[in-house]
Amino acid sequence: xxxxxxxxxxxxxxxxxxxxxxxxxxxxxxxxxxxxxxxxxxxxxxxxxxxxxxxxxxxxxxxxxxxxxxxxxxxxxxxxxxxxxxxxxxxxxxxxxxxxxxxxxxxxxxxxxxxxxxxxxxxxxxxxxxxxxxxxxxxxxxxxxxxxxxxxxxxxxxxxxxxxxxxxxxxxxxxxxxxxxxxxxxxxxxxxxxxxxxxxxxxxxxxxxxxxxxxxxxxxxxxxxxxxxxxxxxxxxxxxxxxxxxxxxxxxxxxxxxxxxxxxxxxxxxxxxxxxxxxxxxxxxxxxxxxxxx
Length: 294
What we know:
TIM Barrel; seven-stranded parallel beta sheet; 47% helix; 294 residues
């Protein structure tokens, strides 16, 4: 997940954005996702979205697949965003089910229709099942989406009980799912791998430490995967519970990748105590995020 980089007064930092992408590519990630919730998409204007989409796609230049998040309540807007992503060279789009605020949510039929229209655009889709939407996506509905929409074969499951949901989804629609992934910084990664996940869309904080966990597990070395995961779990827990998306920016500043950890108001600056503990937890593992820019 690619953070959106601002300068100290909240303007887009294009140079910092490009350096962030280069950092991720150097860590040999399998792909990157922009304009997501982790990217503070909710604080961006439509014009800024367009600028960032073009900058990121042009700068990666096919070096890794780039996923563009297109979530919106309006099916029309989502489809327009999907077309724009396709036309500018994105590999995949990611979308949550339609929702607005706490109470305005799509019905199962509306969700099905929503994703069918995105599928008609002709670009692969990743469905994001995230707590932020407040939409409860039942496993039978997810299976129906996978079975009925050819372009929808990727699922990012980060709702409560992700492992059980992934397992049950694969039982119903395994042959229609190319990528069952988890998310939420990988806080339940090992259990999700055991359940059948084949990847994770984590933050950009420690891809060089999380990648080997997934690779070891998929290669059949569960013991090594478990040990590697246990070693970094305190970092993931602190990031997920204490810092959120601010963790990556703070670590990237520490490592000289970007100049500012600014997040737009009303997001608060990370407490010094939480930031210091983050760096303390990271240092023994010597992650690239603390050295890449120095």
